[in-house]
Amino acid sequence: MGLFILRRIGVMILTALCMTFVVFFLTNLYPKLETLAKTQGNARMTDAQVASWIERNGYSGPMILRYGQWLGVVPGWTRVDAETGDLTGRCIERTATAEEALNAPTFCGVFQGDLGYSTVSDDEVSSVIGGRLLLTLKLMAWAFGVMVPSALVVGVLAGMREGSRLDRSLSTFSIASTATPEYVSGVIFIVLFASSTSGISPWLAEMGWIDGRTLFLGSARSAMEDITFWNFTLPVMTIALYGMGYIARMTRASMAEVMTAQYIRTARLKGVSFRNIVLKHALRNALIAPFTVIMLQFPWLLTGVVIVETLFNYNGFGWTLVQAASNNDIELLLACSIVAVLVVLITQLISDIGYVFLNPRIRIS
Amino acid sequence: MTQLTPQPTKIHPVAEMYAKEHREGKIDRREFLVRATALGVASATAYSMIGLSPAHAMGHRQVPPMGGSLRIQMEVRAQKDPRTFDWSQLANVTRGFLEYLIEYNNDGSFSGVLLESWEANEDASQYTLRVRPGVTWNNGDAFTAEDVAANFVGWCDANVEGNSMAARMGGLVDPETNRVRDGGVVVLDDMTVQINLPAPDITIVAGIADYPSAVQHRDLIGTNPLDHGIGTGAYRVTDYEVGVQARLEKNPDHTYWGDAYLDEVFFIDLGQDPAAWFAGAEADEFDMTYETVGEFVDLFSSVGWEQSDVVTAATVVIRPNQNNAPYDDVRVRRAIAMAVDPQVCLDLGINGQGVLAENHHVSPIHPEYAELPPLVIDKDAAFALLTEAGHADTEFEIVSIDDDYRRNTTDAVAAQLRDAGFNVTRTVIPGSTFWNDWTTYPFSSTNWNHRELGVIILNLAYRSGVAWNESAFANAEFDALLDQANGIADADERRVIMVRLETIMQEEGVTLQPYWRSLFRHYRPGVINAEMHPKFEVNIHYLGVAA
Questions:
Q1: Domains and CATH numbers, chain B
Q2: For the whole model, what pTM was predicted?
Q3: Any CB–CB contact under 8 A between A81 and chain B?
């Protein structure tokens, strides 16, 4: 078991290296550096000014060496200004005095625990990404809290009597919800519940049943400070609905299969009540397959939050990723990809280990 | 000894002449104000010269009650050296603590902020700037002529990448050293600075009223204002998270020279999608928009927000780049101009929210605007001209940024060219990459902001070889005439030359420039002095909320 986990961590590091190198390569292509120079310097700089900016800010060396600097295995670049004599460099803070500049460390990369500097936020990557991840964690926790129980209930209800009217209607609902991507359902939700000119809000306001202009808020910005039912329902529902259908389908399939098993028939012939068959005998076995599916939903949620956070203006991890990508914020983007790799591989690991506990027939060796 | 009581300022003789012209009906009130105040006449004096009571004329700015908090929807971008500002949004935050020498009001006049007054000599080649007494920096230093001079030196440093102030300083920059000309900026005494230009220049006042000209402390030129927070204004930044929000509050440790009303101001970043802004307004996230665009103008009004609009010289140009075939052929360019009806672009591009323009990029609200015969739109003649040039089958690719009005306007151009028989393809590029090559696309659209004078825009965008000359237009006659126009303070005399400049622009088919945009802003009832500004300026010192 220990060896298995160690091997998994090795794979994780290797994947993170490959992934970040790809991101590094793509974001350091010259046209992307030009974008960076123009967003950082002035949108209307001339080509000569762009070249000088790139040179002055340490983006001009060979790419592999700069990747090494980011990792922390190659000394960070330094540069002495020919005119003023000021020392600048990768490891030197922008506001540092001359003395501090001289005493700056030689290496500063991921291995030294320095994720680098976010150009768009004008701040350390570590201080940007921490708070944003926390916000996304809250959103994901709520979405999971809504998604998993309701999906399991829907799946079990549908699967316990395959082909019944209940099964058909719940299956239709699951398929519809999983076929509606977030950017569609989110917009529909806003129009229906969070617009003062369309949907049900004007009617509710007219009847005097709501105090504000709209039932729910179409912007989750206020939820960053204080989560309420009114500002967080729509983003949570938008994420939850999409994943819910999929998990419910998987649960239903698994449940339906279990319900046809020999031991269920035996139990039924022995006169066990249907309720007890479902809850005591079928459910536990039926939940093994959905467990993997649920763990797989974590990486899926990462893509979901990108859309939902942008749509509802919730400044979390997904929103940060969009900002970093559209501004070619190299080091922020790299940090985002590390986080993404970690999330995917750790949930995989948990899923594999959890599987062993749920299904004793499987051994890890 | 310095004189303590200011001497009665002599009114500039040219300003007197403008006043006469206004009384004779040659120029309207806005034009008069722009010209007279640019010569250093205080706006109150300027109003009185044409028989208006300044109290009445300036009456649109109310005195709000003290206190309150206001949330403004606006992008919050990473701050940098003000000289390199490329977004008005950056300056709207720093304006709370970094003030300007002169400000451009939304009625088209200039008034002094850190300058008490300024005067130009007869041919507008020498300016005398008088510093406002009693202004202090929030670190306790007095604001003096040294600060003004140091900022001029900083603005003139063309070696700084992205320093757009260098272009605004014109002749004050020595082309040899790319720095300020010797003897260009002279400190006469603690309170007076003299600017000596090698040639007459009437644009310098507009230049130092523009948003990148925020005045920094004499020792802090070239720094990011967020790093030190030192300024003369009444506010201080307490919180600045790029892409999320900025918060300013009244600085309790600083005695501000003027009045400021609000206790705190938030700038809330809701991204670039106007639909998200509207959702934010419905969710009560903010009280005032930075700008309301397109169909959202009506939407915001429909939910009970107050609307403010201003006609500007802001526009969109859809220009061929003459370094690229087939646009090096004047017949092709003229054929393009002849095939496109500006009215259609105005209607389809911006829902008719603006006024028509004439493809020469000088607006009727510019003082030197000269009226030319109406444009001839003839699709058949256009195609005949194109065929004559041998490009009837050539494919024309028109590039635009992926946004609301610029894309729609460019689509309207493409559709009209197709109607005329041109073979047109359209390419839409996302905002993140569009600006990389904006000056070199063979045929693309660009938005241009409002400028105070017609010659400013011609100098920036159409003079041979200048950085922002995206149409690659190079014409010796045009350049020579422009040089001449730059030295004529009298707009009527300048207009004689403008006729020819504008005609060259049309004859050469330099650009399609179909309309002038009106700008809109919305705010909740009860927000005071939040009127739209032609240059998107927000000065939080003036804002207030009804008690």
A1: 14-59+98-227 (3.90.76.10), 61-78+235-293+529-547 (3.40.190), 311-518 (3.10.105.10)
A2: 0.78
A3: no
